[in-house]
Amino acid sequence: MDLDHEFTPEERERLEVSLPTALELCRLGLATMIDIRQSFEIEMKGAIPDTVHIPLFEVKQMLGDTLTENEQDILDAGKPKEIDARTFIRTINALHHGRDHLLLCVCNSGRRSLSAAALLRELGYPKALSVAGGFQAWKKLQSAAAAPADTPAPPPAG
Asked: Which of 25, 132, 144, 156 to pair with 18, CA 20 to 30 A apart?
């Protein structure tokens, strides 16, 4: 799966879970969020607490997949994390089989995580899902939770 793949509504429905659902599954100990962004993205924008970092593009390279030009550009924008097949498989198996967890892939906006969930399913991990909206949705949720409840809504733009 590459970033240029357009997912049908049926594929999205099968592969995607909402952020509130993802957070509740993690709170209940039924799932683990896997941040598939590149290291520099996490350093620049921050991380969702208690996520496991497994960068998607390094995994794709390790598996022998050809990266699209867009994927290669993103990979080249930072210092790639060294990941080998053994580490990747051990990490995923510990989460998926060892804990019998759902694997909830999260990226910046929810687009790359769809590809990551589809890739994990192709590799034999049927409990892989994408978190809709990704880190941006999480950041928005955190901002909303931090806003005082008695603050009036801003006037409509016009």
From this structure: 156
